[in-house]
Amino acid sequence: MELEELKRYLRMDYEMETEEEQDLLKFYSLAKIHIKNQGVRLNPEDPDMVEQFNQACAMLTEHWYDNRQSYRIGNQSYEIPYSLDSIVRQLKYCYGGDAE
Predict the structure, then answer these.
(1) Does any domain span residue 72?
(2) Which residues form a coiled coil (predicted)?
């Protein structure tokens, strides 16, 4: 996913500093690694799988970008949204992806 597509998905329609854009791309890169480390083996030949993989990475990027503090005061937590967990499960078990 390219930067402009990622910003559109995350509804970031404002002008960002170069450092913010670099942070966003870094979070996206780390999200791809994180999803693959969850046992997802992306099959680039399967457009449905690629679409869901990109969505999962964008969701995780948004979560990490919005929750950059190292700690939180109060009862709110930094748990990853359940919908992301559901997509990762689908990626792992609904597609017969090859190891990348």
Answers:
(1) no
(2) none
pLDDT in tens, 55-98: 999 999 998 888 877 666 565 556 666 788 899 999 998 886 44
- Full-prediction pTM beyond 0.85? no
Q: What domain range includes position 55?
A: 3-67+77-94
CA separation, residue 54 to residues 17, 27, 36, 47, 75 (Å): 24, 13, 12, 10, 31
The two structure tokens encoding residue 83: 């919908």
Those residues with Cβ within 8 angstroms of residue 25's Cβ, 6 or more apart along the chain or in another chain: 3, 6
Q: How far is Cα 32 from Cα 35, in angstroms, rounded to an integer? A: 5
